[in-house]
Amino acid sequence: MLYYTPSGRVWFFYFLMAYIFINLIGTLALNQAGILGNAQTPYIRGLFVASIAFGTVYIAGPLYLFNHKIKFYSEDIKFTSTIGIVIFYSLLIGFINSNSYTYILSDLAYLIVGLAIFLLTRFGNIHFDINKNNLIKVSLLTAIAILILEFAFGWPSVSLIIFYFALFLYGSYLGYKKFIFINLIPIILIAINSNRATLMTLGIMIIILVFIMIFKKKFGLLAIFMYSSVLLLILAILTFNSLLNHFAYEILSSPLGMRIYSMMEIFNPNVGGIDFSRDITISQRLYEVTAVTHTLGSNVFYWLFGYGLGGTLDMSGTLDTSVANSALLGAESVHNIHLLHGAMLFRYGLIGLLILIIFFFKLLKISIKTVDSTTMIMSLAAIAIIIYSIPASSFFVTEPLIWFCAAIIITRKRILKPTH
């Protein structure tokens, strides 16, 4: 089920152990130190980047160079050169604008480490073979790992959750009734303890899956049921607010109830849409978009190429005190931009945003055209990462799974249909 070269095996297991150890042990240690929630993120991400950089330079890199000949194929060149061009011009603009060196370094480190993950995964020929015969086993192991990490250690692994969603969607695509029945309880348990971004991701991915099934002419009874359920849910949110209000208040004590209630109020005509005084997270994101457009101003160059790596925004007028308090350089120089399109536009310009859009539709096209189960699962996972990152852009750059997905998709393509 898991394949790799001898050097690839060393890299894969080093990466896996570093990721688990830093996230798990780091979460426990920071909890004991009184650093909780999102405040842990910079520490854990920094340690992970450092561990991958160390592993690349001193372990995986030398092994790859000495143990086998590295080959670049056209897909590798296209992917690497695209990322390389974005890194080059955004780094140059960052220095020209005298952006914070601290943030320039952190932005650059995430991109280079991500590119290293992609290349080492490709050169190690690391890939999976997930099919109907082992789908139930893989999904159950993933679900059990998610629930153990969540309830026993307090670490909700978003990477595993998104991968599990991709497995569940693929099983639904197959119409695999036994798989769906076995995974109903795990996915409900995961959903109940999920945040709003996770629920949004699952809902949108179900709709995307239905359209994929339409294009693949695999629109059976199960797809009709799923599509009808999604439409009814949307209709209920838009129309039957009183019923949903009652439902949400009944389960408001659970995370799921609070998320449903927050999303429901966006469409509630009785409150006129978003109540900024009650949902500060949404108002903060809208405030950030305004700050981005104000900073870019009427400068066409900035709109095309962005403000560069390390760019910051003046958010001294924000209502979200947590943003101002957590900013390393103060509220006048906030680096984090929550909305993905806002972050891409600000740092990399319309060119960077266009590359992301092309990447998204390329993944969608692969999901529609591929006949390989692993390729479809990894494509769905990558699409889910992009959707999850829409309200939390930092996840897109720092999430290693998307680099793995890109590498494995290319590897599977070359294995199934080699080109020279």
From TrEMBL:
The name of this protein is: Uncharacterized protein
Q: Does the keyword RNA-binding apply?
A: no
**Keyword Electron transport among UniProt keywords:** no
Query: Which stretches are transmembrane?
Result: 12-31, 43-65, 77-96, 102-123, 135-153, 159-176, 197-215, 221-244, 345-364, 371-388
Sorted alphabetically, the keyword list is: Membrane, Transmembrane, Transmembrane helix
